[in-house]
Write a structure and sequence with these properties.
The protein is of the alpha+beta class and 388 residues long. The chain folds into 4 domains: 2-66, no CATH class; 73-82 and 328-386, conserved putative lor/sdh protein from methanococcus maripaludis s2 fold (Beta Barrel); 83-93 and 254-327, Elongation Factor Tu (Ef-tu), domain 3, CATH 2.40.30.170; 97-251, Orthogonal Bundle (Muramoyl-pentapeptide Carboxypeptidase, domain 1), CATH 1.10.101. 17% of the residues lie in helices and 35% in strands. It has a 6-stranded antiparallel barrel. A hairpin with a 5-residue loop joins strand 12 and strand 13 (284-294). Helix 1 runs antiparallel to helix 2.
Length: 388
């Protein structure tokens, strides 16, 4: 471009030695001259930029044309493929239940009674969080009256006294006999609250420093199904409590891992499967699924038991739960990038033979993971494939 501009300038400018030039020959004005010079310089710059932008101009033309095109290769090989899954979960003590204070119906009605004296509603003793509790242990005292743990499935919901009948009477008798309060074996464990039952209750009340009445108020007992653990403690010594005040939580003894799997991934897990959980301290635990239930969204709520006890001062620990689903072992695979797809959804792999010849081979593709994909077709283990 600059050459053309310069030549045009020369054609319209008279030579200083040519005195025979016509007087009418055009003489460029200074402004036009500057314009032409600017165009020439611009053309030169553009040409230079174009030259430098294309790195092929730095080489001989024959060298560029003859340079081989380098393409990456990989090997068709046997692999094990699996798919990884991950969800958020929690490590916690199972079956946490909040236990509340139950006020006695009237003053002096038995251990745990709440007299009109306000001092009798003050917590004077309470078990520590993390404690293991079993039948006969005292959970707390309101005033002087204790609330005691006993074992059994029936709740304490009424005052038991002479001539009361029912399954809760039998449960009370069985618990107190197991604790040794019928040393002479004079009591028949049944559903009737007899004089013998009353005498056994009085021995028990004396032993736990409760008011000796021979009656049992629902405020005196908390039934548990098996030895358990005290979780969070809500009440504190010196606090005044009212009927239904939360006192503490009772949990199962061991921690478990709980998490929810979306409906789309529900079939990837089953009871007995093993998952892993990464904890905030950097440790990883394995857990075996023991229970699964379906939630309202169709997902699965999963409970898994850790293979080893988890030591932590925190009741609930967040966790990242992972598991893998195997697609199979010894599967013929190639890198995902070596798969070519046509508009008609036919898949190909470009194979390079030992003599350097390259050919396209039609294949069927299966599952993929870790950057490799399962294939089948006229291709064998060890074949070299083009993998850009």
């Amino acid at each position: 471009m600059s050459t053309r501009v310069v030549t045009e300038f020369q054609r319209h400018t008279p030579s200083p030695t040519n005195r025979s030039a016509p007087a009418s020959a055009p003489t460029p004005r200074p402004g036009r001259l500057r314009h032409l010079i600017a165009l020439a310089l611009t053309g030169t710059v553009i040409a230079f930029v174009v030259f430098m932008y294309d790195p092929r101009n730095l080489f001989e033309e024959s060298a560029v044309d003859d340079a081989p095109v380098l393409r990456g290769t990989a090997t068709a090989s046997l692999s094990s493929l699996s798919e990884d899954y991950s969800v958020d979960g929690t490590v916690s003590f199972r079956d946490a239940t909040t236990v509340r204070f139950i006020a006695a119906p009237s003053a002096g009605s038995g251990p745990g009674a709440a007299p009109t004296d306000s001092a009798a509603t003050v917590v004077t003793e309470i078990v520590a969080a993390g404690s293991t509790i079993d039948s006969g242990d005292i959970l707390w005292r309101i005033g002087l009256e204790p609330t005691v743990v006993l074992v059994g499935p029936e709740p304490a919901y009424r005052t038991l006294d002479r001539d009361a009948e029912g399954a809760d009477v039998e449960q009370l008798e069985a618990s107190l006999v197991a604790l040794g309060y019928d040393p002479d074996a004079t009591l028949t464990v049944d559903e009737v609250f007899t004089a013998s039952t009353e005498a056994m209750v009085e021995r028990w009340q004396d032993a736990i420093s409760a008011e000796i009445t021979g009656e049992v108020s629902p405020s005196a007992i908390v039934y548990i199904a098996e030895p358990s653990r005290v979780g969070a403690v809500a009440a504190t010594v010196g606090e005044s409590v009212q009927d239904a005040s939360a006192m503490l939580d009772i949990t199962a003894l061991d921690r478990g891992l709980t998490f929810t799997v979306p409906a789309s991934d529900r079939d990837t897990l089953s009871i007995g499967a093993v998952v892993e959980a990464d904890l905030p301290d950097g440790s990883r635990i394995a857990a075996t699924i023991s229970e699964m239930s379906i939630d309202d969204s169709g997902g699965a709520v999963v409970w898994a038991v850790p293979d080893e006890p988890i030591d932590s001062s925190v009741d609930m620990v967040p966790a990242t739960v992972t598991w893998a689903v195997s697609f199979g072992e010894n599967l013929l695979t190639v890198p995902v990038g070596s798969i070519l797809r046509t508009d008609s959804s036919q898949y190909y792999v470009e194979v390079r033979d030992a003599d350097g010849t390259e050919r396209f081979v039609a294949v069927s593709v299966g599952r993929s993971s870790g950057g490799r994909v399962e294939i089948s077709g006229d291709i064998a283990v060890g074949d070299t494939v083009i993998a850009p």
